[in-house]
Amino acid sequence: TRTPVNVTVTGAAGQIGYALLFRIASGHLLGPDVPVNLRLLEIPQGLKAAEGTAMELDDCAFPLLRGIEITDDANKAFDGANVALLVGARPRTKGMERGDLLSANGGIFKPQGKAINDNAADDIKVLVVGNPANTNALIAQAAAPDVPAERFTAMTRLDHNRAISQLAAKTGAAVSDIKKLTIWGNHSATQYPDIFHAEVAGKNAAELVNDEAWLADTFIPTVAKRGAAIIEARGASSAASAANAAIDHVHTWVNGTAAGDWTSMGIPSDGSYGVPEGIISSFPVTTKDGKYEIVQGLDINEFSRARIDASVKELTEERDAVRELGLI
Ligand code: NDP
């Protein structure tokens, strides 16, 4: 029998947390034979709701769920953590300037980064979901100097999955026929979903679609603004699909990408593709044995270059802003 993996979830009482915890406990995060201990971190106002969710988790009698701890103390929540899903964040409210948003989140992610640094297990893997996810991940990473930087990642898998779904609908293919799609840059409206290297049932996607106007005016904005469209339709922001993407991100990181395919992850740049070293930007990656590698050698055309550069520029501006605020 395997020792349980400690999985910490912050913002556990929120919408995404509610959709996420049951799937972690049922084995979808790490695999059907991996027992888990859940550590739920909440702010004091969220503790009672987290306890309610924990009661429901108990009531599922999940064979893989070995324990649940609920706390508002980050040091306890990350004690021995092997996987950390940082979901809780300060949302942008009306009239809030970017600087206010970044400093409010700095107040969350800097102490959490330090608590991870001081308490997590040596093999800790961190996924930041809470927005602005890339820069929140950078703040946490900078506060954890003893943890290898590459263990801090930000979620662009929902954008990746959304892009696969849109491309499948356009081409009439099954989602499982779509490979090698890439999200570049920031998880924001500037993100760039790239189909120039993607394949639809083995054929090049861009050549198959052969419609640059659709790409520029329909596909890219539909993927980038999908979150707002969901809010408009549902009256609430996407939660189940975001939780699903978090599951996919960690599952792929731990269990590997399929041969002949890759995925998209926000990761600390090593300078590849002209993305400044250190910022947390989305790249095409393959994963194996719990490690990821950027897919190298892709030819970046002018259309893609301009869009990657624009998103990366936004990320460097966010980095400069949090640097000025003393958060990194
Ligand atoms: P959600 O669970 O709906 O969302 C949580 C975060 O995920 C938000 O920052 C949200 O960003 C982000 N997110 C990323 N991708 C997506 C996506 N595709 N769709 C929707 N959201 C996405 O928020 P709730 O308000 O329901 O819950 C947040 C919880 O976090 C609360 O229970 C609160 O108490 C807790 N919290 C905990 C903290 C802690 O543990 N220290 C700190 C702060 C909050 P966006 O806002 O841009 O949609």
Model description:
By secondary structure, the chain is α/β, with parallel strands linked by helices. It is 43% helix and 19% strand. The chain has eleven helices and 14 strands. The strands form four sheets. It has a six-stranded parallel β-sheet with strand order 3-2-1-4-5-6. A three-stranded antiparallel β-sheet has the order 7-10-11. Strands 12-13-14 form a three-stranded antiparallel β-sheet. Helix 1 packs across helix 10 and helix 6 crosses helix 8. It is globular, with a radius of gyration of 19 Å. The N and C termini lie far apart (41 Å). The model has no long low-confidence stretch (mean pLDDT 97). Bound molecules: NADPH dihydro-nicotinamide-adenine-dinucleotide phosphate (NDP).
| Structural class based on helices, strands and sheet pairing | alpha/beta
Given as residue ranges, the uncertain stretches (5+ residues, pLDDT < 50) are none
Q: Assign an overall shape.
A: globular
Bound compounds, each kind once, are: NADPH dihydro-nicotinamide-adenine-dinucleotide phosphate
Largest sheet: 6 strands, parallel
Total helices: the number is 11
The proportion of residues forming helix, as a percent range, comes to 40-55%
Order of helices and strands: EHEHEHEHEHEHEEEEEHHHHEEEH
How many DSSP E strands? 14
Mean pLDDT: 97
Biggest sheet strand line-up: 3-2-1-4-5-6
- Our estimate of the beta-strand percent is 15-25%
Task: Please state the CA-atom Rg, rounded to the nearest Å.
Answer: 19 Å
Cα distance spanning the termini:
41 Å
